[in-house]
Amino acid sequence: MKHLSPYKYMIALVLLFSVTSCRKDIPQINDPGQYVEANFNEIFDAYWNGMNNNYVFWDIDTVDWDRVYRTYKPLFAKLNANDSVDVQKAYTYFKQMTSGLVDSHYDLSFNDTWLADSASINPAYQRKRASPNYHPGISILHFYNVITSKYLDPDRVRGFTNFPDGSQSVATSGTINGNILYFYFKDFRLKGLFNTDTMNGVKRVETWFFDKLKNKTDIKGLIIDVRGNGGGALEDLDFLVGRMIDKPITIGATRSKMGMGRLDYSPWAPAYVRPHKDARAITVPIVILADAWSVSMAEMTTMAIKTLPNGHFVGERTWGGNGPLTGNKFYNGGRFGTAFLNEVYTSSLTFRYRDNKIYEGIGFPPDVEVKYNKAELDVQIDRQLETAIGLIK
What coarse category fits the chief subcellular location reported for this protein (predicted)? Predict the structure, then answer.
């Protein structure tokens, strides 16, 4: 099984940010998929040039891509593409070349049958596993069973929706002490599931939560829980956070590649959250819970709520993969493939938060840090959630 494979479907973002750069309006890049790859010398050139043109973080990345060329070009030239041992050696080289890349969405998968059983290469995941602060994500059962039974009032709701690809969305919602509204969801497929013609488990939870959000008059605080959330559709930003505001808010800016130059970037364009048609301006404290396994849209939602004057972030520094992704047809940058490489999964845009800092590769820091504590979780104590409740009280 490929590392972080759940995130690959969850981070298929729908671009809603304000400026769209169409390929027909800007110079065309050389499509790496059109390179002839009869040998490893050509396989390396297709990949290296694809990264040189498509990767959006070269101005902040510490990897010297020219040095990579000088070091690995002769090593690949010695390999035989028809030798299984050499193919495995090439896999090792790809792992070495990408180990320091700042893009925390980055994932490299292969078409070659000799690598069919090899995990995709995910540098951020490998770095996280090697970190002295590494811990596993909180079990989904904690959110579905423990929180609902121990912390939420009896009228709480929970549900799940299964998909043909074997994935599953899960959501829970309820009140705490009668007047704190809580909402947890596993991934960002909220708008898509809500707009289905028939009821599903997640839609039922959303319907309950959105009704309380709009109509409950005695709310003292709101907790949005995106711990362990792997991201998803960017349209959910307006769909969820847009229900809590009565005017647009600027959360930062995005930038794309404009041409073939490594540093050929577009100007920064403002990134907004816009009010939903059913919006109600929430003035009570809004606390978002996020952790080291909160990725992509979970991070951007955390940033959006932190932007609000009544917004607070409790938990851990997030994953650090907040560059939006979209189809390569929209921008001169982002993911691509070659004959040898199934997909180079990489961000299409750079996102800069409203403080003018880029948190790619380092994660977004909490206002109140509460670290993962396995011993407490094992006895059904959720210190992060309890801190959020205490902050509201």
Answer: cytoplasm
Integer Rg of the chain from CA = 22
The pTM of the full predicted model, rounded to 2 decimals, is: 0.90
Can you read off the two tokens belonging to residue 135?
Answer: 């811990």
pLDDT in tens, 262-300: 999 999 999 999 999 999 999 999 999 999 999 999 999
157-162 β-sheet, strand order? 157-162, 168-176, 180-185, 221-225, 286-290, 311-315, 368-369
Distance from C-alpha of 323 to C-alpha of 361, rounded to nearest angstrom: 10
Convert the pLDDT of each residue in 123-151 to its tens digit.
999 999 999 989 999 999 999 999 999 99
- Per-residue DSSP letter, 18: S
Residue 51, domain member (yes or no): yes
**How many CA within 13 A on the CB side of residue 278?**
10
Specify whether 253 is located in the same domain as 385: yes
Distance CA 365, CA 125 (A): 19
Last residue of a domain, which of 130, 156, 186? 130
Domain that holds residue 12: 5-130
